[in-house]
Amino acid sequence: MSVRTRETLHVPPGPQEFPDSPLSRAFRQPFLLGIFLPLQTGGWSQSTLPRGTDWTYPYNLELTRRAEAFGFDIAFGLSQWLPKGGFGGATGYRENFLDPFVSAVALSAATSRILLLGTVHALYGPWHPLHLAKFLATADHISGGRFGANIVTGYADTEPEMFGTTRLDHDLRYEAVDEFTAICEDLWAGRDNLGYEGRHWSLRGAYVSPRPAYGRPILVSASGSPAGFAYGGRHSDIVFVSSPAGEDFDRAISALPDHVARVKQAARDRGREVKVIINPTVVSAPTAPEAQARYQAIMDHADLESITNFTGRHRAGDSRSWLEHSARGRAVGGHLHIVGDPDQVARRLADLHAAGLDGVQLTFYDYLPELDHFGRAIVPLLEQAGLRIPADRLPSPQETS
Prior knowledge:
The chain is of the alpha/beta class. The protein has a single domain, classed as Luciferase-like domain (TIM Barrel, Alpha-Beta Barrel), CATH 3.20.20.30. The protein contains 13 helices and twelve strands. It has an eight-stranded parallel β-barrel, surrounded by six helices. It has a two-stranded antiparallel ribbon with strand order 5-6. A two-stranded parallel sheet has the order 10-11. Strand 1 (about 30-35), helix 2 (about 55-70) and strand 2 form a beta-alpha-beta unit. The radius of gyration is 20 Å and the shape is globular. The chain starts with about 20 loop residues before the first helix and ends with a helix. Pfam families: Bac_luciferase. This is LLM class flavin-dependent oxidoreductase. Keywords: Flavoprotein, FMN, Monooxygenase, Oxidoreductase.
């Protein structure tokens, strides 16, 4: 058995290269719709205004099934590692936190069409590429090719300390996770037992079987830096970005075209294409004044103590995302705030599409009723605008190949 180098690791075809894969089916939509699940206390919004949003698995299962019924393409979970009490405050923000990897596998077994993505901090603790390659291949088979991993490096210095290690420098983390993912890809290609000696990992006689159904599992990444964009360009099917100009929509929409273009160019430089998505929080109601009043009420009930703790932790890290977001905006949450009646929300989403974005991962304040409002009142408008195609009218693989 020869020992391979980073440059000679094998790369399997991605699921985009299989016209009948669940990812290819989702990508036939003009504009992807995803839901960012509230697997954590408080979801995405640091406000004490009463609501029903809940971190529990039954609640998130109901959300995922409803999103699937409304034609959503993706359900996604965040990962953070926090001490007792989470970010504190009146809400105990993010004190309880379901693991998104395990949750996504469970949700895949309880759904039939929607893609399930789970976040993994690949550089923390006991993870080894052989572990993750095997676990993801298993999840791929459980889900019928609908499972994907959002592989992240982590930015907070306190998180790796929980695992008895220290945080690597920003760009070195991306070097390490690139090597990690490349090893997984070789194992998914399955050409032979893998012998490898690298800077960060080594393997002897490693093999993974069964291999994924469509070349490899779906891969996702999230970043706001050139190193992160380069990683996404090499490995990811979907790259998740934040707004480079804060949560205010009018400011953000001017900055996003160049930002998105940089992400896509990083992939094209490597002969690949990626989809780019962003996370708006939608606050909508039948009329614009009702939506604005709801938005203001959420802001007026800001959980200031938890917001202070959250922003302090973020500033102590070295993330290149969220740099222009206001602390007060955390009461609502999300990379962007979209507020208005159904027509206004649909127009804002069309603006994001025109700015080069391929879809959104939506968050809501009170998830179940607001998801229902979005699905019943806004999805039909997106279909009328040509941004969405009803599931029963999607082109077949033969029509798109």
